[in-house]
Write a structure and sequence with these properties.
404 residues, mainly alpha
């Protein structure tokens, strides 16, 4: 009887896998959760309104950069102009819907392009997990324009992993044109000694910004208002959702000079570990690029003055590749519990939870993940994924026979 039950269960599991029932059920769940997220985001969409108003001001010939909340490149104002042709409410609805689609694209493309071959239901399963997480919900709730670089992230990493550095540079440059969220990836072509790719990635936003300044009414305010606001750190001490290291240390009451010193130390640790990991060329090139790229992004983000909880979405590619041979996330069990504070619910940001406020739990979680990744990259050599015969050097006698 037991044997018959096991056989029936195995047959049922096989039938579900082959028929795609699990995949379809998960995609239906993704659509349902996405609908809830879009409804939540439509009621907020605060960040997207800043971009909408910038586009509206550009169309009306009014100053664009006088608003200290608009911390974007001039290209963002130009790109927002068509968006501003819509009524404000309609524009927010479209933007929130695009944010939700971007979360699904980030998860699905990471699985399809970067993860090890697996079952078909893995992509919708990861999409569902990311959508239900606090980080995914936060991006949609505030409708931040960082959804564009996030959706492009797996494609950028995949291009670099396959040695397509021109494609990598063009995609990265275009993402920076929207918002310089992935600017930490500019170090990848430096590590790979690809100066042409670096020049393309930097040149696209520089040229685009120069041309865009010709179209705005107040080009000087970009240098007088926007850049100082970026350097000063908008809302660094006021917003309880800011999870940057600077805000965490200010929250702890540390003096400003010590805060600056600790931020520099974190950058040295993150970039140093990324360099060490890049120089270890053995193993899977996809794992190498994803691990180094995500660590650079995590370091540049936490070192900045402002970090929001949806920055945790940068971790999706590095955790998705856990099934690939040699991936650190597949060989370091402690990394997975560190995700729990990011996944734990707790909105709005100033409401304490069992993990503390959103700022505290997200900031500490991201910092802990950065330090663990840096430690493992520095001490854990990549696993050789070649065949055992290719990985082992030939013995002298065998080599002599091969020469004969």
């Amino acid at each position: 009887m037991t044997v018959a039950l096991r056989a029936a269960r195995a047959a049922l599991v096989r039938e579900v896998r082959e028929s795609g029932t699990a995949e379809r059920a998960l995609w239906m769940a993704v659509v349902a959760i996405a609908a809830v997220r879009v409804w939540q985001g439509y009621k907020n969409a605060g960040d997207l309104r800043i971009v909408w108003y910038a586009g509206r001001h550009l169309l009306d010939g009014a100053p664009v950069f006088i608003d200290e909340g608009f911390l974007y490149l001039p290209t963002s104002a130009v790109l927002a102009a068509p968006f501003a042709l819509l009524r404000e409410g309609h524009g927010m609805g479209v933007g929130v819907l695009l944010c939700c689609c971007a979360v699904v694209v980030l998860a699905t493309a990471s699985v399809r392009l970067l993860a090890a071959p697996g079952p078909r239901w893995l992509a919708p399963a990861v999409s569902l997990a990311v959508l239900t997480s606090y980080a995914g919900g936060d991006l949609i709730a505030v409708a931040n324009s960082e959804f564009v670089p996030l959706a492009m992230l797996p494609f950028i990493l995949a291009a670099a992993a396959r040695g397509r550095w021109t494609t990598f540079a063009v995609l990265l440059g275009l993402s920076i044109v929207v918002k310089p969220f992935l600017i930490g990836l500019l170090l990848l072509p430096l590590l790979a000694f690809r100066p042409r790719a670096l020049a393309i990635a930097v040149g696209i936003p520089v040229v685009g910004s120069a041309l865009s300044l010709l179209l705005v009414a107040d080009p000087g305010n970009f240098f007088d208002v926007t850049i100082p606001s970026l350097l000063r750190g908008q809302e660094k001490t006021e917003n309880p959702a800011n999870a940057s290291l600077a805000h965490l240390l200010d929250y702890a009451g540390l003096p400003e000079k010590l805060v600056l010193g600790l931020r520099v130390v974190m950058v040295v640790i993150g970039v140093g570990a990324a360099v060490v990991r890049w120089r270890r060329t053995g193993g899977d090139p996809v794992v190498r690029v994803v691990e180094v790229g995500v660590l650079l992004l995590l370091t540049s983000s936490l070192a900045s003055s402002v970090v929001w909880s949806h920055y945790a979405l940068l971790l999706v590619p590095v955790f998705v590749i856990a099934g690939r041979p040699g991936a650190v996330t597949g060989r370091t069990a402690v990394l997975w519990p560190l995700l729990l504070p990011v996944l734990a619910l707790g909105y709005p940001a100033n409401v304490p939870t069992i993990w503390g406020t959103v700022m505290v739990r997200v900031g500490l979680s991201l910092l802990a993940i950065l330090l663990v990744l840096a430690w493992r990259y520095a001490v854990l050599p990549p696993r050789d994924v070649r065949s055992p015969q290719a990985a082992e050097p030939a013995r002298p006698a065998e080599a002599e026979q091969l020469r004969r």
